[in-house]
Amino acid sequence: MRLGVAKAGNIGVSSMLELLLDERADRENLEVFVEGSGAKMDVEEVEGCVERVLAGDPDVVVYVSPNLTVRGPQRAAEVLAESGVPAVLVGDSPSREAAEGLEEMGLGFVVVTGDPMIGARREFLDPAEMALFNGHVLEVLSCTGAMTAVQAALDGFLESGGDELPRLVVDRDSAVKHAEFRNPYAEAKAMAAYEISEKAADLDVEGCFVVQDPEKYVPLVAAAHEMVREAARLADEARELEKAGDSVSRAPHARDGTVLSKERLMEKPK
Question: Which of 50, 81, 96, 240 would you call most buried, defined as having the most Cβ atoms within 10 angstroms of its Cβ?
Answer without folding.
Answer: 50
